[in-house]
Structures are given as C-alpha cells and as structure tokens.
Amino acid sequence: MQYIIIGGLILLANLHFNHHNAMGVANHLAAPQENRIIKKFSPHPYFDFDVPRNVTTRVGQTAFINCRVEQMGDKSVSWIRKRDLHILSAGTAVYTSDERFQVIRSEKAENWTLQIKFAQQRDSGIYECQVNTEPKMSMAFRLNVVEAKAVILGPTDLYVKMGSIVTLTCIISQGPHDLGTIYWYRGSSLVQPIELHPSDPSIAYPHRISVELKWTEALTSRLKILDAKLSDSGNYTCLPTSAEGSSVMVHVINGEHPAAMQRGCATTASKDERQSRIRLLAAMLLLLVLWHGVTVRAASQNISTLETQRRSWQGNARPPPDTKVITFRPAGTLSSSSSSASPSTSLATYA
Q1: Could you read off the pLDDT of 186-225 as tens digits, one per residue?
Q2: pLDDT at 244
Q3: Which of 138, 144, 142 is nearest to 127 (CA)?
Q4: Between the CA of residue 280 and those of 246, 263, 271, 283, 285, what are the distances in Å?
C-alpha cells in the first residue's frame, strides 16, 4: 500500500513538472510569434497579426484597414473609432451617417475590412477591431491620411545657357509607400526618354534626355537633359501617380546672362513707370485747362450781367438811390471837366 501511495505521488509530480514545461514553451512562442502556433488549434477566436497595422493613404483616396480574425465561430466584429469612441459598425451593419464608411467581409468571414472612401486628414487616428468575446478582444490600427505633394528643388524659373546640362529633381517626402512612379511633362507632352538608334534620327527624345527614379526615404525622380537646346525651353511638370504635381519653367538662353534678362525686365518696368507718370501729368493738365475754362466763363457771365445793368441805368436820369457809382478812367489820364477828357466808364454797385 505504501508503494502505491509513493508511486502516485511521483506520477503527480511528473505531471506537474511536464505541465510547467509546456507552459514555458507556450509563453516562449507567444512573445515573438504572437502565439500563432498554439492558437491555431484553439477553439476560441484570435487575431492574425500578419496584417499592416499602420496604414497610410493620400487625401482623396480610399483607405482600407484590414482586420483578420481566425476561429470566429458565432462571434462578430465591430469597428470603433478611438478618438470619440464611435461605434462605426457591428458585423456588416454600419452605424454612422457618413456614407464614406463601409465594412467589407470576406467569404470565409476571416477578413473584416473597414473601407473609408475619399479619405480626409480628419480621418487620421486610431481604429479598433473588436470581437464580442467575454472579455472583449480588440486590436488597434493607426490610419494616416496625408496630403502628398511633389516638390521640384530649386527656383520656379530656371535660366540655363544653351549647351549646358539641365537637371530637375522631383521629390515626394510624405505619403504612402505605394506612391507608384513619377511622370515628366513638357507642356502637355509626356517626356519619354528613349535611346537614340544611330540609323533612326527621327526619335523625338534621344539619349541626351534621361529619367532616374529611386526610393530612399522619399520617392525621387531626376530628369537630366544634356546639351540643352533652345527648343528644350518650356514648362516642365513632375506628376506622380498618387500625389499633386509640381512645375518649373526652364529658359534656355543663347549667350545672354540671366542678370541681363533681369536688367531688361527692370528697364521695361521703368519704362512702364515713366509712361504711367506721363499719363498722370496729362490728366492733371487736362483738369487744369477745364477748371480755367470754367472760371473764365463764369467771369465773362458776371461782366456781361454788369454791362447789361449799366446800359439800363444810362436810359434813366440817374441810377437808383441805393446804388453807388464808381468811375473807371484809363491809366495815364488826368481827371478834367473839359470835353476833351478821356472817356470814362461808370460802374454801379448796390449799397
């Protein structure tokens, strides 16, 4: 009987030891591999962590946040917007008046994708994929909606001498990783760098024009033009497939320094300024002439009125009693009562 009891105790000790070893192995696997191997055989729901959890998209595009849940059973998935704790969906039912939000469920019910059409920067933030287990399971995703814009390094007006090298560098430093490629346009024509065949000089863009595209921390496209010609002048635009473009005006000049062009522009500006001043002076002179004409006309009317009054008084024996008579004599004459005296003019004014 004692041997049976001792054997049972030893068996229990071995079972306890093996259980702790198994738990240690499980904990060891769960840390780096999110416990996928053990949970694969679990009857309970669990998240698949092999999905992007930091999603970046451009303004105006459609954003997709993919949540994968294994062993769903009879459970359902809800999407929660973290900033205001708004329940966006439960299952495939959407609980928001914003029609841009929609939930896409795969046939196997493993993928629950939150779709946001015409994404805006205000949509950026944390979104939770939540399973209605007890206790609830949730996994957070970050959505970044950025305003991606291409930038051409250097001035917006570029002056180069004929025969020199033109290098235009276009950079997109912000945006999703799937920015695609960058196309270059001169005006409305696509710049297509094609190698020139020696026997076919009719190709539009010979090898002297090349485009280099590379990914580092940003998407960079470099357009290089060797032996610049006058016909290479124009408006050059770098247009990414998923970002706003940028333009620069290239001026290929024939032996004239850009500073001379700037002086020419300044001379033109000073000529325009002189013409403006001349027009202003002419307008002021015209106003002065008009004012003088009005003044002379008013004075003439006053003199005519006084002359009419004087003639009316001459027809009477004497002017009215309330009138004062003023006599004007030509300069250089003496006042005399003789008949040979110079004629005088009488002007009557009312007292």
Answers
A1: 999 998 765 555 455 555 555 788 888 888 777 889 999 9
A2: 83
A3: 142
A4: 41, 26, 14, 5, 9
Residues contacting 297, CB < 8 A, separation 6+? none
- pLDDT given for residue 149 in this prediction: 83
311's enclosing H/E stretch is: helix 258-314
Report which residue type is found at 21: N
Q: How many CB atoms lie within 10 A of CB 170?
A: 26
Which residue shows structure tokens 């990414």? 240
**Contact assessment for residue 158 and residue 249, using Cβ atoms and an 8 Å cutoff:** yes
3-state secondary structure 37-87: HHHCCCCCCEECCCCCCEEEEECCCCEEEEEEEECCCCCCEEEEECCCCEE
For the stretch 107-125, pLDDT in tens is: 776 889 999 999 999 999 9
